[in-house]
Amino acid sequence: MGQPAVRLVWLGRVRYTELLAVQDRWLRQLQAGPGTEALSGTEAGALLLCEPVGPMYTTGLRGGLTPKETARLRTLGAEVCATGRGGLATFHGPGQLLCHPVLDLRRLGLRLRTHVAALEACAVRLCEFLGLLDARARPPPYTGVWLEERKICAIGVRCGRHITSHGLALNCSTDLTWFEHIVPCGLVGTGVTSLSKELQRHITVDEVMPPFLVAFKEIYKCTLISEDSCS
């Protein structure tokens, strides 16, 4: 029996709400079971990727923003969206790679905890590909990927009936000043960084896509399939 297949869906530069709408469609298809028009019985789900357009603050199941804070952020020209993922408040915007794997973990032989660790490993591997050898995940209560005390990748997932949604946000050339208006992920005394800041050159989402997909296939032990035969 070969490797499980995951559908690669590159949305390009879209609003965060559009990513959520596509995620919801894939969730419904996976919950309906194999044999649907969009998902064959040999596929484990979809890997949704995009670069968000416009500033967006999101909150998780643990909240993270008061009504007063929400109003203040909107005066800055940002949108604010409550989501069903784990974690607290974070920022999404241009120059960031968003990765939302909508997966049936049973078909991949994974548990939720190993899925979260695999997402962290993908971001660590990508950093290593680019020469940032000190990137690492940290033990609880921390999540995501760090360079010392600087967080470069945030992770927040949701899982119901073995099916995952949401995922990671990797700062490539993100305007980090947007993070100064919140306490990212509720962590006091830590900083936020980006690939561009660490490598002292402009790193685009397009540049990191190929090595990220290599890392994802290796770590999840899957085949990526898409309409344009990207694998």
Your description of this structure?
- By secondary structure, the protein is α/β, with parallel strands linked by helices.
- The chain has a single domain (5-33, 43-223), classed as Bira Bifunctional Protein, Domain 2 (BirA Bifunctional Protein, domain 2, 2-Layer Sandwich).
- It has helices spanning 16-32, 67-75, 105-108, 112-129, 195-199, 205-220; strands spanning 5-14, 43-52, 56-59, 79-82, 90-92, 96-103, 136-137, 145-147, 150-160, 163-171, 191-192, 223-225.
- The strands form two sheets. Strands 1, 2, 6, 7, 8, 9, 10, 11 and 12 form a nine-stranded mixed sheet that branches.
- Strand 3 (56-59), helix 2 and strand 4 (79-82) form a beta-alpha-beta unit.
- The longest helix is centred in the middle third of the chain and has 18 residues, at 112-129.
- The protein is globular and about 50 Å long.
Largest sheet geometry? 9 strands, mixed
Helix content: 25-40%
Examine the coordinates and then state which fold CATH places here, giving the name of the CATH topology: BirA Bifunctional Protein, domain 2
Number of strands: 12
Shape-level CATH architecture:
2-Layer Sandwich
Described by the principal axes of the CA atoms, the overall outline is: globular
CATH class: Alpha Beta
Structural class computed from helices and strand pairing: alpha/beta
Tally of separate domains: 1
How many helices in DSSP terms?
A: 6
Mean pLDDT: 88
Low-confidence stretches at least 5 residues in length (pLDDT < 50)? none
Give the strand content.
25-35%
User: Kindly, what is the distance between the CA atoms of the first and last residues, rounded to a whole number of angstroms?
Assistant: 19 Å
Order of helices and strands: EHEEHEEEHHEEEEEHHE
CATH superfamily: Bira Bifunctional Protein, Domain 2
For the CA atoms, what is the radius of gyration? 17 Å
Subcellular location: Mitochondrion
Keywords: Acyltransferase, Mitochondrion, Transferase
Organism: Otolemur garnettii
Family: Belongs to the LipB family.
